Q: What sequence folds into this?
């Protein structure tokens, strides 16, 4: 299964940190890449920097961050387009249908999303119907659709890795990049 | 099961939006309340405003947002203290143990967390060992420990509620507040 994320309505000043969390969550929970409709060099650099150190090749695909024209993307994407919104239908009711597809675009908006997005998406899906966070919604969506991939994911080209521990922090350096 | 969230290291300017997402996720995913170690009136107001409109009484407890002294809280809390960190042990390995408890404090830090927190917590638990987001981590933690409460939660004192729909947005006004 290939899942791509489309982050809509990013405002570089205001959304810098939330959008960073959205992108990192996409990577850590097994998405193949994330598209922004706005170029934000600093944000892209910081995500690419994480990819360099922690890896981007998860064995199924190589995580990327790119810009796109969102309307063209929504019109031309050759897979299932799912808009995450608190107004949508509960994920549990649609999960079976979602899992039939091999290629998915998940759309997560910042504050307000053009109403066109509701129409251009194949499904409008909610992770609960309360106001919360696109980061939380994306995490639960990817967790369900990719079967808890966040607990199993392994980046083949990582230079560093965590060794889980009861107290404190343990990092392992890997030999993936002899030229460094 | 009562779960409280402790948000550590909030910096009002820098963390305003992420901390808002943490607090909204806590509420929407069934936590009973959230403590901050820093007072941030604007943030507290915006969360209390959500509670007024969308409700705070989830049938088990009334969601609150408060300040506290984090060190005293960690020393005196009479339940299980769990620090969410990418360096900790996988949630899946500890879930059985966690679920034995009736009262839990979940600690989620901003950027850097004092090493004391790792020591004062009963468990250091990871939602995957990749860098991502405390919002995503909190969402998955609450989802697992409260058995998908985010899909079932119902606020008894809500004035508005979403009616899930395939396309667009539907809001229902409720009769909870005749004085308004």
A:
């Amino acid at each position: 299964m290939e899942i791509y994320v489309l982050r809509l309505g990013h405002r570089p000043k205001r959304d810098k940190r939330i959008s960073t969390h959205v992108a990192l969550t996409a990577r850590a929970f097994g998405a193949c890449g994330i598209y922004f409709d706005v170029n934000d060099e600093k944000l892209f650099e910081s995500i690419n920097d994480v990819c360099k150190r922690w890896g981007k090749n998860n064995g199924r695909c190589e995580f990327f961050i790119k810009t796109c024209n969102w309307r063209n993307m929504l019109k031309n994407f050759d897979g299932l387009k799912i808009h995450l919104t608190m107004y949508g239908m509960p994920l549990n009711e649609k999960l079976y249908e979602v899992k039939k597809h091999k290629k998915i675009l998940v759309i997560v908006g910042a504050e307000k999303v053009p109403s066109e997005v509701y129409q251009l998406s194949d499904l409008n899906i909610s992770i609960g119907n309360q106001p919360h966070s696109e980061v939380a919604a994306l995490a639960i969506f990817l967790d369900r659709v990719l079967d808890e991939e966040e607990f199993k994911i392994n980046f083949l080209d990582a230079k560093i890795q965590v060794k889980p521990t009861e107290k404190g922090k343990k990092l392992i350096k890997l030999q993936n990049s002899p030229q460094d």
